[in-house]
Structure formats: C-alpha cells, structure tokens
Amino acid sequence: MRINTRAKPGFAITTILLSLGVATVVFATTVFILPSLWWAVLAAYATQVSFILVMFGAYYMRNAAQEPQSPYDAERWDGINDRLIDTEPPVWLSYQPKMEGLNRVRRVAVSAASDRNSRKCCEWLAEYDCEVHLCSDHDTLIGDLIARPERWSLLVLDVDHIGGSDAVPRELEYIRSGLAQVPVILMSSQAAKARLDVLVPRKQNMVLAKPFFRKCLFSAVERLNPSTAQDGH
Question: Measured in whole angstroms, how far is the alpha carbon of residue 147 from the centre of its chain?
Fold first, then answer.
C-alpha cells in the first residue's frame, strides 16, 4: 500500500498535540467531578491513548480507501511503462516482450479501457514473451483484427468494455466470422462468469473472472495455445 510518507510526521505531531489538549480537558473535568488526582490522571491517560488510536486508525483507513485496488490480484504495483505506438488512432498502446531478439512472437490484442488494471494485465502478458497491443476503442481493434487476422495470435476482451455479458454472444459470433482461428480470453466479473461459461463455446475461448492472479492468466494462454503471429505490422 502506498501512503504519502511525507504527511505522516505532520499528522503524528498534530494528533499528539490534540490528544494532549483532550487529555487536559478530561483531567480538569475529572478533578472537578471526582476530587481524586489518581482517577483524573488515569482518565486523562486513557482518553489520550484512545484518541491517538482512533486518529491513526481513521488516517490509515482513509488512505486505504483512496488507494486504487487492482481487480486482478493484490500484488504490489509500482507503475507500468507504456507508450503510444500509433498516432492514428491514438488509442493503441504497445507493450513489447521482455525477452529481446524474438523474431516471431505471440501478438496479443487487448480490448479494454486504457486504465491501470488493463495496463497491468498487458504488462503481465509482455512478461510472458507476448507483444501486446491495448486498444481502448473496441470497434477500431476489431476492424484491425478482421482486416489483418494473420497478424494476431490472441484476443483478450474485457466484457465490461464491450457492453457487458449480454453483448458477448453477438460480439463473439461477429469476431469468429473474421477470426476463426484466433483464441479469445474474456475477462468478466465473478457474477457474469457462470452465465458466460454456459453461453460461450469452450473451443478456442476461455472466461477469466476478475480478480485473477498472474498465474491464472498465463495458464489460460497456455491452454488456448495461441500460435506465433506472422512478422510485420
């Protein structure tokens, strides 16, 4: 979890000063109500400790709520280096395979919103020696796939990005009309997976429910066994 460490010292000092003020008020009130110095000190101390614990608990809960959580897994994410590869349209992002010198690679097209979670999924695939192209415009991606089917080894679709599970059968039928040999991985919510498992043919298709781990994605790629794409763009 990433928390603004520069804010911690200032928050701690402010919390301690406020706790001292609260403890002083409680001490004075207790002495006035119960003329016992011992009970006054005990009440002030307990109040100060409780105040500090509550303030720090609220601070960490607020930071945890503001931290975007990945729908894929709970692994630490320190940022992904991505870059635009096409100027027309500017919706394509490219992720090159980590292993250099590969003449022929599995070229993967990803239809998903260009957000942190989609980019992390692309980064994983790049680590798996795939050349990955993320497109945030689904129609643009499908047009390219059907125009150049020999270029692609695998298609990854975010179900939410293409209109939900109701749109999957129609969309998959359209994709298969031009990409009969290209396997497809559908990323869906856990609730939609059971329905999609019934609707989607198992041959050359697989449904992954979010959140999923990196190894689940790699296992899906291996089970679908995508072929190596032809060279050239």
Answer: 30
pLDDT tens for 164-183 read 888 888 888 888 777 667 88
Please answer whether residues 55 and 15 qualify as being in contact, where contact means their C-beta atoms are separated by less than 8 angstroms. yes
* Identity of the amino acid at 91: V
DSSP for residue 97: -
Nearest in space to 101 (alpha carbons), one of 129, 138, 64: 129
3-state secondary structure of 206: strand
Question: CA 124 to CA 183: how far, in whole Å?
Answer: 18
Strand partners, 157: 111, 186
Whether the CB-CB separation of 206 and 157 falls below 8 Å is answered with no
pLDDT digits (tens, 9 = 90+) for 52-102: 888 888 877 776 655 444 444 434 333 334 433 443 445 778 888 876 655
- Report the number of secondary-structure helices (H) and strands (E) in the chain: 7, 7
> Which long-range CB contacts under 8 A does 199-203 form with residues at least 24 apart?
199/165, 199/168, 199/169, 200/168, 200/169, 200/172
Residues 124 and 141: their CA atoms lie apart, in Å, by 20
Higher pLDDT, 148 or 105: 148
CA atoms within 13 A on the CB side of 56: 12
Q: Are the C-beta atoms of residues 123 and 202 closer than 8 Å to each other?
A: no
Nearest to 233 by CA among 135, 107, 95, 77: 107
- What confidence score (pLDDT) does residue 98 get? 72
Q: Report yes or no: 118 and 146 within 8 Å, Cβ to Cβ.
A: no
